Amino acid sequence: MMVMDHQQELLQFYWMIKMKALVVKPGSKGVYLKDIDLITENKIKVKTLYNGICGTDREIVNNKLPFVRPENGEYLILGHEALGQVIDAPENSKFKLGDFVAPMVRRPGNCMLCKIGRQDYCIDGNFAEAGIRGKDGFMREYFYEDENFLIPVEKEIGELGALIEPTKNVMKMVEVFQSLKNRIIWDCDDSTLNCKGAWIFGTGSEGVLSSLVFKSIGFNVTIVNRHPLPENVLKILDKNGLKFFDSSSKNWKEALEENPMDLAIDAAGSADIFIQVIDHINYNGIVILFGTSGTGSISDGSFITKIVDKNLSIAGVEDGSKKNYIDAAKFLFEYGSKYSINDIITSRIKPEETWIFNEKPKDEIKTIIDWNL
Ligand SMILES: [Zn+2]
User: 117: CA distance to ligand 1 center in Å?
Assistant: First the structure.
């Protein structure tokens, strides 16, 4: 037995690679670029190319999310938005050396929905999320992954692959929208959505990506914020024929005449915005809530009457399925150059530039970590 243990120890030592990773210690503030050991597994070995940085990462680093937990030990490897390249694969794998892949974030627990690949609709919360809760993330040089949780990506996608994870949320919004609109005849009388307006609240990367995706399915899109936008965001909107409404102007009437509100997507999570949406959306409108910051309050009961009178559908949307990831990769590949989606990536930084988690670069839409810099 002693001999076995010793052999196992040697074997483990032999199959361990040192690599760099960005780690946090759940329960405390801070993020560190650390040398850690990667133990070989009989899975796909992926070299990380890019990671996207989002608000969740910044909240984790600042110890604002109570559900953050490590996979093993006291540290959690950060990062849930990633594009990587396969550098080793077991025989009979569906991936081969050099393939580009994007890993899925949420991993199934044991509930019925998790068992059918819809862990995005998990009913008991017993899932894990890479880089967030119970599973190490992808802000590291390499990772091993089960092929079922890797999305194949066209190589030509380049750094846009770092946007697959946030875009899959938008693809789930499209899926939810399609099912809600099917309760009545909702399309225009030429069978398209060209007479319909989608209003997107929030001008961060998720807001801009939502605008482009909903434009691609035929909507006229208005994007809303309560302050004027920086030049670089306006440029993306102009280029793609998206309207902007600064809600601090309070000039709703004119903006609604220009583009009616039939679908509203809120990426901000504020009660004030929700109240405005219910007031201004058309009859039979669809409201999709995605923002989770949950600020403000709704105290007026007439609000409920409006929802009922207008036959509104309201849905909360969280995470996305493997199909939503595949659709996201397809969207970014097909529309990348048509919509100049690269303009969404406003800075590229090295892994050691950890200041990025405490400080947003000016006019940031999306910052990515480039592991080859
Ligand atoms: Zn579940």
Answer: 9
